[in-house]
Amino acid sequence: MKCTYLDTECDVVFRRYENKRTAILLFDPFGLPMAKATVNIPQVDIADDEIIINEYDEQESMLKALIEAEIIKDEIRVINLASSFKFNVGKLNKP
Fold it and tell me: What is the Cα–Cα distance from 74 to 85, expressed in whole angstroms?
């Protein structure tokens, strides 16, 4: 599976965190790590088919890249951690 992130076509690799949640990694055309698309925040309740999207500073286009590649649905919910941390939660599309 592929997605375009920061104008680079990336390979999308699915893994699992220790708590069995889905992790998504992006690799550039040379096989080098480009970005970690997800974060694992165990204290946040999410469904088995949801991911917490890693979006901050240089990764602010991650949500757009995952939706455009149809990796996640475009129905997003927002969770707040503390007063200044906000994360998007996306629902994975079924393969």
Answer: 21
Q: β-pairing, 50-53 with 33-36?
A: unpaired
The answer for 6, left when phi > 0, alpha when psi is -120 to 50, beta otherwise, is left
Q: What is the pLDDT, as a whole number, of residue 30? A: 97
Q: Is residue 35 a contact partner of residue 71, using CB atoms and an 8 Å limit?
A: no
pLDDT of residue 79: 87
pTM of the model: 0.90
Find out whether 91 and 75 touch, Cβ atoms under 8 Å: yes
Q: Which residue has the higher pLDDT, 58 or 34?
A: 34
Alpha carbons within 13 A on the beta-carbon side of 59: 17
